[in-house]
Amino acid sequence: EIVLTQSPATLSLSPGERATLSCRASQSLSIYLAWYQQRPGQAPRLLIYDASNRATGIPARFSGSGSGTDFTLTISSLEPEDFAVYYCQQRSNWPPTFGQGTRLEIK
Amino acid sequence: EVQLLESGGGLVQPGVSLRLSCAASGFTFSTYAMGWVRQAPGKGLEWVSAISGSGGSTYYADSVKGRFTISRDNSKNTVYLQMNSLRAEDTAVYYCAKTRGSSSSWFVEYWGQGTLVTVSS
Q1: What does the pLDDT look like over A25-37, one tens digit per residue?
Q2: By a Cβ cutoff of 8 Å, what residues of chain B touch chain A?
């Protein structure tokens, strides 16, 4: 089973700042990594798939990069609604696994 | 508009069975693999099971293999999760998941609202 390690566990920033979230895999994923956002009390929402492709309706301030074992989600300028928990997930093989999450909180 | 409506959750005792259903609409159901992802209270996400668009291939997490069975009825646009021999550690919100492809594309493009399963005596 592929293990995904997200860092940092918690990120404290202010609206308007740039956020950089990391996800490291225990083995190469090629580009088969996604990012999700989960707000309190809601289902997750797909943001990025195949490392760098924005899902339908996702604002351009969200971008993904990386390949192999190291991936990054960047939010260029934080909006109030962006403060949430973010998960990465791999689909390189079954079972698909998620990282433990990064909580993005308002500073 | 894609909609996924789960039903069947509830409070049950350890050892009993429960069947979850997910009624889908807004897309060509048989074209997409579907699955179930769960989230224990205050915890992260875990893929539980998945099924290909045709229903010919099924996949299970080790934690549920032999106890849970996934199936689908493409004539009813519905996917099911039969859960037997439930344990306390199965307590979670179960999300119905529509993936991005017909098979092996295990990114969740759309999520249901979730149904809570609580296993407790």
Answers
A1: 999 999 999 999 9
A2: 44-47, 50, 59, 61-62, 95, 100, 104-114
